[in-house]
# Entry
Amino acid sequence: MKAVQYVEFGKPVEVREIPAPEPGPGQVLLRVTAAGVCHSDIFVMSRPPADFGFAAPLTLGHEGAGVVAALGEGVTGLGIGDAVVVYGPWGCGTCHACAQGRENYCSRAAELGIRPPGLGAPGALAEYLLIDDPRHLVPIGDLDPVRTVPLTDAGLTPYHAIKRSLDKLYAGSTAVVIGVGGLGHIGVQLLRALSAAQVIALDVSEDKLELARASGAHLAITSDAGAADIVREATDGRGAQLVLDFAGVQPTVDLAAKCAAVESDLTIVGIGGGTLPVGFGLIPYECSVSTPYWGSRAELIELIDLARRGAVKAHVETFALDDAPEVYDRLHHGRINGRAVLVP
Ligand code: NAD
Ligand code: ZN
# Structure
């Protein structure tokens, strides 16, 4: 089968022919119908081989949708041809966090060598994808897999990040979204669907600001040195009760701190390496800073339900597996609008 692989440090991804996997006992084989391309892959591939953490070549892709192609021995509750999306942050299934479906915070995954598909285990940018356990699949029925697959990460990550702050998003409050890419544009839609907050979106190019407006932002402004003043003006000087930073680079983390209100949540989702000095006088009183990772199984189910009701619609650009090197190059240079989805 065809698979998009990270092969060598510093080199573009390669589309290679590799053997299709077969499901062992308890496993499920999917024929991939759509796979999303995340900026995190670029971060992963930018790390030198010594701290890469996974064995190369690695099939990329941690957003997967597919139909069940084969069932391993003992798997029940799924039928051949069922349409599903993949819950990516695989855990052990039995620790305290996993028992609540919060496998993204599994306490034993590292020790047991359990890795998400595309981030250690073979990923979804391929014709077939092996799933370790049927609990990592969520049925999507007749939803379009291409529009639904981004919800598994570009949707689930902001959903989790927003849900934990909903008590701060009272009527009259403001949420700031920095970076309106794959995650950010769905973040804007989720803020509108889940809260009464004013939503202000910031990005560096006009096409991203246009996507922010189309996604429901009340105000979309250029992310530059003057942006924090505009946010202050739009909030009667108070700042935002929730600031979501979907870039996480030094300029955006600095900007996030300038936009945050007293008693706010400052939530850094982007893995851009920016740091924030925390201490009295450095951030507003009672501002909580956090770095959430992905989301829970239950949250993915909730999100698929939201999509079925039409409350979230990922904006996608579609490509073939063969286009993967170009897609990563475009993503790196900020030239993907919404989420890039590869269709095998
Ligand atoms: P993306 O490239 O689609 O979107 C990033 C957006 O940030 C782009 O629109 C870009 O123009 C914008 N941006 C860049 N610099 C900016 C600046 N100075 N000011 C404002 N906007 C700026 O990437 P994505 O796939 O949406 O991922 C976003 C980030 O989240 C990445 O760092 C990714 O690694 C990370 N991520 C984290 C998690 C998690 O669990 N914490 C999960 C998925 C992705
Ligand atoms: Zn991701």
Summary: Residues 38, 40, 62, 153 surround zinc ion (ligand 2) (CB under 6 Å). The CA atoms of residues 244 and 267 lie 5 Å apart. The first strand starts at residue 2 and ends at 6. The chain has a mean pLDDT of 97.
